[in-house]
Fold this protein.
Amino acid sequence: MPSAFFRVFGDFRGHSLISCADMVPKHFRGWFIIVVGLLSAGGLIYWALNRPPPIDKIAHQVGERLALKGREGVAPCTACHGANGEGNFTAGYPRLAGLHPGHIAKQLQDFARNPMEMGVVMDPIPRDYSKTPRIYSDLTVFTPGTRADPVMNPIARKLTQTEMRNLGIYFGNLPFTIDPQAIDFQTLERGADLALRGKPEYGMPACISCHGPEGGGFGPHFPPLVGQPPEYLIRQIDKWQTGERDNDHLALMQNIANRMTDGDKLNAMAYFSNRSLEKVK
């Protein structure tokens, strides 16, 4: 293929774009310019959409103070999540460092939200239909998001929306290092099959199809799996299965969790605890 390409278009290595265009046969020159233009525009759009936003320095400083020292009624985040937001593998507290700021803020909002009322009690319809009470409400199969946790619920309910955002900005911009855990080969092989292939025969996609290569996370809706305590991740899947957690994007994880066995949880999470990423920020 490369040799055929160079026979038609020439070898452009070491040439400027203008000289490359001159090397292209005239009947291909228009297409060459269009293709190069589209590739350049696509690259610029990708860069614009994926470049990290500038850090709000004031929000970062305020978030840092709250994370390290807490305030009246709110304990320091670092007491459980580590001095640098690295988490606590022994106690099963998750890593916050390097998570998407929007993801952190949303989780705090969901911890603070009271569970939605299930069901509506309606009065009997009177004979005079003009006096029938009308209830206007947005109907959706997806809840705004709730997370039940005896430690985080009371803390999150004392935070303001601004404080949640500030904490997200602070922790989301902390560097972190992942230390891979030693896992036996059989568990690793089974976990890799779930992480990389899923269980398509049961309608379960591969973990990396949403959580990114190596489970490194993708955007605010799909957090990283690598570098998190396996016990924490398994506990979250358990909560999706029991309904204690109901705040996943489009109910994706709830459906996936219901297709996972206890063995699936152990194997997949062990696999991600064995993965490693470069030091990221």
User: Anything to note?
Assistant: The radius of gyration is 25 Å.
